[in-house]
Prior knowledge:
344 residues, mainly alpha, two-stranded antiparallel ribbon
Amino acid sequence: MDQTILAVASGVAAPHAAGKQCIEEGLEKAFKITVHQAPLSLRDPCREHFNKRGKHLRGKLAYSAARQYGSSSQVASSWAAAVELLHNASLVHDDLCDKDSRRRGQQTTFRQYGEAVAVCLGDYLIAKAYEFAARAGTESLHLLSSSISALVGGQAAEFANAGYPTWSEYEQIAVSKTAPLLGMGVVGAALINRQSAPEAELEHYFYHAALCFQTINDIRNFSGSDGAEAPCSDLANCRPNAVIASFTETLPKHLNARFSLWADKIRTGEIIADTVETREWWQRLCASDAFSDTAQRLHFHFNMASASLVQLPMSLQSVINPLNQWLALELTKTQHCMSNHRDD
């Protein structure tokens, strides 16, 4: 196992109990306000959505950054809530785009209440994100707008291009969908406090961290441990996935063209994934170097992220370290998943 990862993972320290409690309490209050103030037609869907709790990685990052830049706990909580609400809006819309039935072990808004309600709930959460961001400081509002623009551009790119994405296309989709809401929490915290952040250096870190984040999730999709309703759902539905993008690069030109045609027909709904053909591609993928190639890429981007992190000011390193350590631990968990597929 990569020694850099072991060193980072072994250095994980337990979060300060009081700080962790303050963050969670602030987010819990914000979610309750959001549910209570929701239009009556959205109140039940909103309440159901927030019954499915995540890890709040983005909110914790935003809170810690805001406190580091000098915000009060109240302002930091508002900023963390804005980031988390925007993230939750993206999840509701993402589930709709992908027609996913389950997230975090429960039915998605799309599946339980329908497409129209999912669109409206996601839009409502974006509106509330702006409200909480304005409470923290109006200096951050233009950053919310640019972050949403980048995020939805990455989401739309999944459906806008013909054929299965190449690795470089996959990389841009993954970064656009993931990096904006990670970096926004830190850069926005500086803006709120009328300070400058090393944006170029932060962008470099979050570029590689976002690829780690998404690649880990993509690998876990093949074991069914990513929260999807079925293992290998990305292959069955031909969604952008790091392992599949690595696999298509190994295919001869004629097979790559055949796979892309099959993927296009599935994504446009022209055909439903055929068990026989899906199984054929699954067997080809397992016989290829896709998992080992993806593992190498994952290790590369983690090492690049870690190298970028130590170039940041110490104050920001302390803010971002918990995220980087979490990535290190998640990366080690994927080793077993990939080993199992190599042994199949």
